[in-house]
Design a protein that fits this description.
three-stranded antiparallel sheet, seven-stranded mixed sheet, Rossmann fold, alpha/beta, globular, Aspartate Aminotransferase, domain 1
């Protein structure tokens, strides 16, 4: 077995063995500063020294105030190439915008976009790579495409027998689990696995979930099973690990130091995102192209006595829905999110939007994108039928209960 893989296994054992010590430290000092996986350089830098490294990252992949790639290069790590998700490496592209490969101007490192027509690295991309470092700030919501990119990256690593480490980061929405569980009939890049809209796991925990539940490609599942079966003793190498956060639990309220994508500019937007993103499947604006994306919603067809805003062309939303049209609706930018949501995904705004929209037949966009976002065709139908939110929520319960039981098997941090 490769020497690099042995190092990865040693780290896995080390992290497993220190979990209890970390838990004790958190109880002793609950206000201790949360450290991300990327912050814990003393753990992972020795394992990639003198290795040719590929980094999957974007603008939120920081160590302190410095980008991870800059940090690695400064410390003599050989960063051979960068893979980037939706919105690009520097995080300025629109949602859904196709980003071509390039060379990062600041570092001179080749950047390969893994969003759009090309979702995962080819064997040729990984031919000159010894190890993969994955460091992305997730927001804990199923239709946020970074977890789909995570899955594709894991598949590429396992299929090509490349060691992969995930530098874990806290989930800002990791303190609850809610929403409809995806029916695989509606599988897409905005929802690839049977999980609820809000799944309450860090990206490292989610990686363990999709590997452990055999939700990867057939060849990746076989490779992962082989390593688990054949390399389970401390004397043999391991191919995959999660560098844990320190001082984090699922009760933590973690404020993101950098916006995770162009249209989530602050924590208000991050908290409202699971509820308001359903409007992406409708003819309603949710504020893209304004200074309050995911903090307001409206339409030119709503009553004109309501709050108003006009979407325009801005970086990260060059051609937003209802661009240049005066919209009437609701400003949620200053509401008490915890009080208004009770730490749950809310349907009240989607239901209210449907009630106010005069052209009911055209409320939901053609093509049923709402079904991909919801992971089911039941939600749109329930809204059309005027079902109360409580009844809709009750329909989620059986699948949610099953998921919660599965989720607990893969948690690395104390639960809420």
């Amino acid at each position: 077995m490769k020497k690099s893989q042995f190092f990865f296994y040693c780290l896995f054992v080390f992290l497993q063995g220190t979990a209890q010590q970390q838990s004790t430290a958190r109880r002793a000092n609950p206000s201790a500063r949360i450290l991300t996986g990327a912050d814990r350089m003393e753990v992972y830098l020795p394992l990639i020294k003198d290795k040719r490294v590929a980094v999957f990252a974007n603008q939120a992949s920081i160590v302190g105030s410095t980008h991870l790639v800059d940090t690695l290069l400064k410390r003599g790590i050989i960063v051979k190439k960068i893979f980037s998700p939706e919105h690009g490496f520097r995080g300025t592209a629109d949602a859904g915008e196709q980003v071509s490969g390039s060379v990062d101007k600041q570092t001179g490192v080749q950047v390969i976009s893994l969003y759009g027509n090309r979702e995962k690295p080819s064997p040729e991309d990984l031919k000159d790579i010894d190890a993969i470092v994955f460091d992305i700030q997730d927001v804990g919501v199923r239709f946020y495409t970074y977890i789909s990119s995570l899955q594709r990256m894991m598949e590429a690593a396992f299929e090509n027998h490349k060691p992969m480490m995930i530098l874990d980061r806290p989930n800002p929405n990791g303190f609850y689990v809610d929403g409809p569980v995806l029916d695989l009939k509606f599988k897409s890049f905005v929802g690839m696995q049977p999980v609820p809209v809000v799944y309450g796991m860090t990206i490292g925990e989610y990686a363990l979930l999709i590997a452990g539940e055999k939700w990867l490609s057939d060849s990746a599942n076989k490779a992962y099973a082989y390593y688990l079966h054949a390399h389970s003793s401390p004397d043999t190498p391991f191919h995959f690990l999660v560098v844990r956060c320190k001082n984090y639990t699922h009760k933590s309220r973690y404020a993101l130091p950098v916006r995770p994508s162009p249209n989530l500019p602050n924590m208000q937007a991050v908290y409202l995102y699971p509820s308001l993103c359903f409007f992406e499947g409708t003819n309603i604006s949710l504020g893209r192209g304004t200074d309050k994306p995911f903090q307001q919603f409206g339409s030119p067809l709503f009553p004109n006595h309501l709050y108003s805003f006009t979407p325009g062309s801005v970086e990260g939303a060059k051609n937003p829905p209802l661009k240049g049209q005066l919209c009437y609706g609701f400003d949620l930018s200053k509401i008490d999110v915890q009080k208004e949501t009770d730490d749950r995904l809310q349907l009240k705004w989607l239901i209210e939007g449907y009630k106010l929209f005069p052209d009911k037949e055209n409320f939901f966009l053609p093509g049923n994108f709402i079904n991909k976002l919801a992971g089911t065709d039941r939600l749109a139908q329930q809204v059309k039928e005027g079902k109360p939110e409580a009844a809709i929520r009750k329909s989620w319960e059986p699948a949610l209960t099953r998921f919660k039981k599965t989720r607990k098997k893969y948690l690395l941090y104390k639960d809420f």
